[in-house]
Here is the input.
Amino acid sequence: MLSGFIHLWNPVGYPDIFFDEGIYMRRAVNILESGNPQDGNVYDHPYFGQIAIASILSITNYSDFKPSTNPDSLQSLYVIPRIFMGLLAVLDTFLIYKIVQIRYGGIAPFLSASLFAVVPFTWVFKRILLDSVMVPLVLGSILLALYSTKIKQKRIVIIFSGCLLGLAVFTKIPAFTMIFVVAWIVYTDRKKFSDVLLLLIPFLLIPLMWPANAIVLDQFDLWQKGVLWQTQRTNSVLDIFGFFAVIDPLMFVLGLSGIAVAAIRRDKLLLLWFIPFVIFLSVIGYKQYFHWMIIIPVMCIAAGILIESIRKSRVIKKSVYVGIVSMILIFGFISTTLLIINDISDNQFQALSYVLENYDDTVTVLASPVYSWILYDIFERKNVPKDYSFILFYPPNTEKTVIMIDEHYRIDLTRGIQLQNALDRSTTVRTFDGMVMEFDSKTYPYTNMQATEEAFKIEIREGIRVR
Here is the structure.
């Protein structure tokens, strides 16, 4: 119930609509229209994530929905996929409970699942991201591996565990780091390499469909470039640790403390879940804050086990212990509720509505993917590139250009002089200030607003092509 409230309440209003969410919505709509999971010639991520989103859109007859240009109607375009992500987060909560129940028992399942349900940073699971789809697949794989150790007919369960982990990698490559913990669970049960082989076959074969498809399309060189491009991020992993500590210090302190205790106890399940991914994160470069989603469950589990160990040690009275646990959960619940009750994405749809109602096909609209797929796929506007980076490679097709300048655009100005020139040669005709600007992002829990930059000030600017 807690998880359902946190992850399903106000699904579109909080958090804001992020740049990448627009990308995956466009790809999902492209699958509905063309049946092809490959969108263009960019190979940055495998296909299962957008296939899953497209499937939900198909089941709900999403293509039949015809919105108006009213902001509320436009906002509804994100309701179904955001609710789907919220339901996956509720499923994550259940899977965390069952994993801890099978492995550790006691009240740790309740504590771990409750922490995942209420701590503020779990709002990130509401975003339409590949990571949101990947996490329940990883958790399901771990749960099946643990379940295989409790039954006689192990092989079929191990194969299904490998299938889920293969689908997780087919959703996003970093999920491959979870093979260490799943293989360890399977091997330590009977110490048979044949069991691990059963796990590895679907784990390897399912993701190989991605490069195989590129070979069929004679685009394997593009596939290699796309995969290598993902490793070229420059953020320091320490920056991500620091960011995590600022936006959710409760989860950060409890989670890392639990991991530290797990290291002392040599709890291989938690360590093999946490350490390989952090090493991968540090070396390869997947360093956005939402890349942490795959290890948030293990931090909640570690924190739950840590809190239960205090009870077992009997260093404090039972009534005091219950009071501490209640305070932690109530604090997390209130902190998260203070965030999710706000409709901070409203200005995004106000800005989109303005563009739809005031400009036609005689102008080129440069916008974030948050808006471009709606303009192009839903309202069939012709001169709308996939995103504003189009002008880094090609000039606009029309004399007049309209640019939706949000915080993401401002961050991307360093990508090329063309983006700065487009900004300098345009004039502001309308500004939409977001509600997020009303909060002090240096005060907890509103420090979370630092991760909602798309909802900051949005400028509508007009420019004329220079001859």
